[in-house]
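[agent] plan:
  1. take the single chain provided in the ticket
  2. run structure prediction with default settings
  3. attach structure tokens to the ticket
  4. add a short note for the reviewer (M.T.)
[agent] executing step 1
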Amino acid sequence: MSLYTKSINKKELLLKKIISQENDYDPTTHMLLRPFYTPGYHTTLTAEQYPLVHPTHQSLLYALGLLNTEEPGYVQRACDVIKRLLTLQDRDPKRDTYGIWPWFYEEPLTQMAPPDWNWADFCGKELVIAALLHGHRLPEELRDQIRQGVSCACDAIILRDVGPHYTNIAIMGALVTLIAGELYGRQDYLDYALQRLEKLKLHTEKLGTFQEFNSPHYSVIAIVELSKIHTYSVSIRAKEIVSSLLNMIWRMVAEHYHPVSQQWAGPHSRSYHTLLTGKMKSFLQLATDNKLDFLTEDELEYDAEWYGSGSRCPDEYLELFTRTDTRMLEQPYYRNEETGFVKWAQTYMTQQYAIGMFREEIMWNQTRGLVAYFENEQATYMQMRCLHDGYDYCSAVLSVAAEDGHLLLGVRFLTKGGDTHPNLDRIEGSIVASDFRIRMEFGGCLDRVSLDTDGPTARVVINELPLRFESLYAAFDESLVTEDRKEQRDWGWEVTKQEHSYGLDLIIYAGQRKVIDFQALNKAAFLFSLAIGETVENSPQIVVVEEGAQVTASNVNGSLCGISIPLKPNDKHPV
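[agent] step 2 finished; step 3 output follows
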């Protein structure tokens, strides 16, 4: 925790960020040179082939950052970067990649699989803001070239016409077309942007939250981009819309902050890190004017994207960041208008822990369907996962029923779904695996954390707070069991230790690579109970009933909501 209360000079932070990138600048290509990274899709490049690459969007963001410092010596470099990036945009309206950029200088759009149409939005917003704020400092020829590039990006954005369900791209596309319409006198762009914002407002208000519900990563992006619209646009209506949306998203953020563990409580619809990163802490600290006081000024990880955006938490929600009372949050986060199906999220906070859960959701790598944070000097987290050869398996479905510190958990399986990603690597009813398991993962601070197992029962203690797990029901194809693991059919827990985490594992299969055909399985279902704190000694008696095509767990006294899941894998997604 830092001890200072002075205001932070964001221009100094920006300048420090730009100076830190000096060694990344490649004067031969006029772009940044960075270690290759990919989320696993769109690009065909590999780290073995290209350990270092020139990223397009990061280079444009760097150019805007150079200009935002207002240092005269940086103007020429910014111009060089922008000129280079404009040559990489597809300007041919006959091609479907018209108006977008590749991810990397090393990989043309024709090589990507597939190209990322979001790059019209990502790159377009840096260009149009550079033109708006610094056009007077740029050569006239370059200003004209930027105008052409932004116009092509706007055309691509309008042609694609992303719906309001794709929140962050909907916002970014509105930002690009709105500012371009105002800056260049293009009424068609301006009209489109306002219509897009109106649709987003209507969609979000009907849902009652944002599509990427309680996502730390995407909530921050939405806040920054909405704030830019409010800061840079002259449209009164646009400002009204984004003010309403910012109010909604900041309330969601503040309500889910757990001050005892200093973590963003779950559940998270999209998340790349289970614990808050230094960058995320830096954003929250800056946006709350040090109300959240994680880091010293020297420790802050500043992002040039934030500069000048005006991102700040409304005063009315600052108090929520410090509340330590016990409380429950429950709300819908998805609605299917055709079927009436609703998904529910629930968060329970106490002075010792915060636990968040979705009632029913796939167990994707980016989804935190059951995640808890514990006070342990530094935060300890618990996350429930289903792992296929060590990676989160998308076609496992988690179901949860909860009352205070007692939970019933179910895991079932889909016959048609994703493997590592919901859409990009769909399974055809089966997978090949050498390892398949359900894991309760504990990470973060592992001091004062102990795990003990006794067959189907496991006990965990985190900073003197007890947890108890019970395997209530387990059914899976017996042919998956190898000879040396037959004694495991009591479905006992095993403790595994990774480099930075502990696993409380229920091993479904471990052995030679083998086909697991979910369509052929008549039974593939698991039920568990979890008790935390006082409920460990006062847990209700749970009865499990297998009846017909379902298996159900419920409290014998009826005070806890029961949970029922299908025994046989099917194609019924939680949507």
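[agent] step 4 note for reviewer: Residues 1-5, 482-488 have pLDDT under 50 and may be disordered.
[agent] ticket updated
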